[in-house]
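User: Please fill in residues for this 403-position structure.
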C-alpha cells in the first residue's frame, strides 16, 4: 500500500468542515433589545407667593439704661435694694446722710420767714405813705422810697424762697431713686462710703430688659437691591416687618419682634447699615450683649419661581444654568439668572417659565438632546418645606411620563 494518502481521502474532512461553517454563517443573528430612555427626576416650576426672609447677625441691648450717680456729696447710710432684683421707677436705692442738708434747709426756711416779715413791714409803710402823699402830708420822694423798699423786700423774699427750694432739692437728693423701672446691677459702694456729686464711677446701673432692642447689620448692597425690588414691584413691602431670632445655640426664640428703624448712613469701615428691632422679653431669657441671628421678613414675592439648588449648575465663569425636559421629551440647557437663596432653593428671575420641568435627579446620565423619561420625585416637596420663612409650602404635581 502506498504510504501517502490519496487526494480523495485527504480532502474529505476539510470539505465537511467548510460545509459546517457555511451553514452556521447562513443562520441570521438574534435581534437586539431596544434601549429604554434614561429616567430623570424633575421639578415642575410653578409660581407661588413667597415671603422673602433675610438672616442677619445682631446683638441684643437694653432699651433703656440708667447709670446711677449721686447729685450731692455725702456718706452712704444705707443701700435699699437687692442686687440683681427688679426695681421700679422712683424706688429709693441709696440713703445718704442728710444732716447737713437738713440744717441748710432749716436755715433757708428761716431766711424765707425773715424776708416775709420784711415784706410785711415794707408793705405797711408803703401803703401808709401812699395815703399821706395824697393830702401832701409827706413829700413825693419819701413815698417813692417806701414803694421801692417794698419792691426790694419782695425781691429778697423771692431769693429766699428760691434758696429754700434749692436746699429742699438737695435734701431730697440724699435719697437716690431709680429713674426707670428695670433690673438693677451690682452696687459699687457699700454703707459708709463717701460719694461726691456727679462722680465718674456709677453707684449701680438699671437696665430695662422688657422689651429688648436688637441691632442687626445689613450690607448696603443687599439693602440697595431690596429697595430696587420694592420700587420695581418685584417685591411687596411687608408693612408689619416682623423679626424672629435664632439664639447662640441655634434654637428659635419664641417671641416675635418688630422692626423699628434703620440708620440713615452706611458705616464706612464695614459697608453695613444698622437696623434696630424691638423684641419682647417677658421671660428674661435674653440678656444685653448676646449674639443672635435675626430673621427679617423684608417683603413678599407674589409670583416667585423657586428651583432646588441641586438642579442649578454653574459654569467656570459663574453663569447659572439648568437642564430641562422640553415638550418633545428631550433634554435642553437653559441659561438662568438667579437671585437670592431661600433655604435649599434658588429664586430664578430669568430663564424659566411656569410649568417647565427642571431635572434634579439623574443629571449624570443625560446630556443635551437626550430623550428621557421623567418620574415624579418627592425631593421638590421636601425642599419647599424647608424654607422656614413662613411662606406657603410648595408641592410638586404628579408628572406624566413623557414619550
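Assistant: Residues filled in for all 403 positions:
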Amino acid at each position: 500500500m502506498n504510504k501517502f494518502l490519496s487526494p480523495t481521502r485527504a480532502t474529505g474532512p476539510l470539505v465537511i468542515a467548510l460545509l459546517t461553517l457555511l451553514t452556521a454563517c447562513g443562520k441570521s443573528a438574534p435581534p437586539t433589545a431596544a434601549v429604554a430612555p434614561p429616567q430623570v427626576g424633575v421639578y415642575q416650576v410653578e409660581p407661588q407667593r413667597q415671603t422673602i426672609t433675610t438672616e442677619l447677625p445682631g446683638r441684643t441691648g437694653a432699651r433703656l439704661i440708667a447709670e446711677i450717680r449721686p447729685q450731692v456729696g455725702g456718706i452712704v447710710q444705707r443701700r435699699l435694694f437687692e442686687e440683681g432684683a427688679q426695681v421700679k421707677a422712683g424706688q429709693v436705692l441709696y440713703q445718704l446722710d442728710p444732716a447737713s442738708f437738713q440744717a441748710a434747709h432749716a436755715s433757708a426756711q428761716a431766711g424765707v420767714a425773715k424776708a416775709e416779715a420784711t415784706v410785711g413791714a415794707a408793705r405797711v409803710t408803703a401803703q401808709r405813705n401812699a395815703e399821706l402823699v395824697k393830702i401832701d402830708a409827706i413829700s413825693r420822694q419819701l413815698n417813692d422810697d417806701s414803694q421801692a423798699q417794698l419792691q426790694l423786700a419782695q425781691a429778697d423774699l423771692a431769693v429766699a424762697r428760691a434758696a429754700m427750694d434749692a436746699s429742699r432739692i438737695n435734701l431730697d437728693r440724699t435719697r437716690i431713686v431709680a429713674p426707670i423701672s428695670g433690673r438693677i446691677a451690682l452696687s459699687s459702694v457699700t454703707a459708709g462710703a463717701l460719694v461726691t456729686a456727679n462722680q465718674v464711677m456709677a453707684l449701680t446701673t438699671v437696665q430695662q430688659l422688657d422689651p429688648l432692642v436688637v441691632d442687626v447689620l445689613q450690607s448696603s448692597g443687599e439693602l440697595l437691591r431690596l429697595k430696587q425690588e420694592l420700587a420695581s414691584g418685584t417685591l411687596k413691602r411687608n408693612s408689619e416687618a416682623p423679626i424672629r431670632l435664632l439664639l447662640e445655640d441655634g434654637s428659635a426664640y419664641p417671641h416675635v419682634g418688630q422692626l423699628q428703624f434703620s440708620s440713615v448712613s452706611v458705616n464706612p469701615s464695614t459697608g453695613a447699615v444698622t437696623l434696630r428691632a424691638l423684641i419682647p422679653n417677658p421671660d428674661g431669657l435674653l440678656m444685653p450683649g448676646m449674639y443672635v441671628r435675626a430673621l427679617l421678613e423684608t417683603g413678599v414675592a407674589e409670583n416667585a419661581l423657586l428651583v432646588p439648588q441641586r438642579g442649578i449648575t454653574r459654569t467656570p465663569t459663574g453663569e447659572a444654568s439648568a437642564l430641562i425636559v422640553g415638550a418633545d421629551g428631550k433634554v435642553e440647557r437653559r441659561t438662568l439668572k438667579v437671585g437670592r437663596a431661600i433655604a435649599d432653593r434658588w429664586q430664578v428671575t430669568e430663564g424659566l417659565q411656569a410649568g417647565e420641568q427642571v431635572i434634579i435627579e439623574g443629571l449624570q446620565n443625560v446630556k443635551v438632546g437626550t430623550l428621557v423619561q421623567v418620574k415624579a420625585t418627592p425631593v421638590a416637596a421636601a425642599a419647599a418645606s424647608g424654607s422656614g420663612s413662613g411662606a406657603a409650602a410648595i408641592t410638586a404635581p404628579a408628572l406624566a411620563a413623557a414619550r
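For context: The two ends are 78 Å apart (CA to CA).
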